[in-house]
Amino acid sequence: MALNLTATADAPLGRTRLADRMAGALKIDDGIALATIDGLTDAGLLTVGAGTVALTDAGRARYADIRAALDEVTARLYGDLPAADLSTAGRVLATVTARANAELTRAA
């Protein structure tokens, strides 16, 4: 998740903002997200400097490998489904996700 968010961000993310996005998306504690960022930094996949997080060359390569593998699986799973069916499924899943997030917020 950290590699994906860093690679696809519209603008450079600070460490705290990246952790907030990870925590929100994964429904995890900010501390876990920060520890993950630190672990990826220690592993040489991310670098933190001048207040922003960036992928290293190794991080870009790892992200590209993961993305390629996911694209292959996604093509096998969804490739032959009609676009209209995918659109309907996407709307239904977005509604269910919004409701689940509202329930989680209410329960917290």
Report on the structure:
With 108 residues, the protein is mainly α. The protein has 5 helices and 2 strands. A two-stranded antiparallel ribbon has the order 1-2. The model has no long low-confidence stretch (mean pLDDT 93).
Note the run of SSEs as H and E: HHHEEHH
Task: Determine the number of helices (DSSP H or I, runs of at least 4 residues).
Answer: 5
User: How does the overall form come out from the CA principal axes?
Assistant: flat
Mind summarizing the main beta sheet?
A: 2 strands, antiparallel
Q: Give the N-to-C terminal Cα separation.
A: 23 Å
Q: Please report the total strand number as a whole number.
A: 2
Q: Averaging pLDDT over every residue, what do you get?
A: 93
